[in-house]
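Below is how a single chain appears once it has passed through the pipeline. First comes the sequence as given, then the structure the pipeline wrote out for it. We keep one example in the README because the format questions we get most often are answered faster by looking than by reading.
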Amino acid sequence: MHQVIIVGAGPAGAHLAYLLSREGINVLVLEKERLPRYKPCAGGVTIKSCRLLDYSLDPIIEDTVRTVVLTHHQAQPVTVARDRPIVHTVSRERFDEFLVEKARKAGVEVRDGVRVNRVHVNDAGVSVHADNVVWPGQVLVGADGALSVVAHTLGLARRKKTAVTLAKEVKVPGERLVQNRGIIKVQYGFAPGTFTWVFPKADRLSLGAGTLAPRFTGLRALLGEVIRSEGLANLAATSRTQGWTIPYNPRPDLLHHGRALVVGDAAALADAFTGEGIYAALVSARLAMEVIADQIKKAAPDLRHYTGLVRERMGPEMLTAYRIARLVYSAPGLFHRLLQHYSELAAGFVELVAGDITYSRFFRSCMKRLPVTFLRTVLDRA
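Resulting structure:
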């Protein structure tokens, strides 16, 4: 019997497995896909995420971003550049496999191609059912993403909001890559609650569109507009379009049930403003490790402290990120004018993404420059 069974080998699951194994805990990871597997993602790993790892990502970094271009509806770009890195871009296929290999080398057993369909948790232990096989364990972790079987079965992270995204990865000629090297482009203002991006990778560009508005139906058209604005319509014609959801919650919900807990996207911990999920995956993995390592030797491990820990350590920033998202996506034109007129605010946005300042500090900067009546209207809805 394994001490801990983790369902899902994405960043949250793989990193938690790595951390637990280094604590001498016996861990099994079950992943439904065959590894390595393709996963749609913009592919940005922020510097603050890198700081959470005790090993370098240099072997898999495809580009290092030091410039961000922010545009309101394809006009009036605000460019912020700095000497230090802001984001590294990676292929999620290689990134996830890299983290899994780190876990394997730490002693974790990883089984891929195993689709979990049922889980049970009681006072005596946990059991995971997949492919007519039952795996018993002491503790269960759901790291199985936005459509988590574990979270759904145990009634965890039920209160959540969802952003929807579509993207293409388009191979481009070398001379075009040079134009985009080290630069991320972000646009907003096409429609309320929408955003787009262009991220550089090794031999291609990731182009995507997303929305926080649940009733928005023009996402595919918006992606097409971004592709055309970049002059890539012909090259993108043969690239497949991939979609995914980003679950987030301005106030973390219940994330534990007896001997079980959920991490990362399964816990709806993504950043409501930037859509980043990797940082929250790594932080929640660290918090889960602390609780599990403390409880695993007890006859009846009790993981109730985990929900409180997430709310304490992550909750304030998650709520502030949501409030900033409401500000920006409710009035993108106003936000963009602020960036144009206040260079320190634009620089602060980049520092926020990199992790050099907190959401609370950036929020205070915004509040100083926004009309009080507008702030009150938006924040009353949060």
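Residues 278-295 form the longest helix (18 residues).

See the next section for the split statistics.
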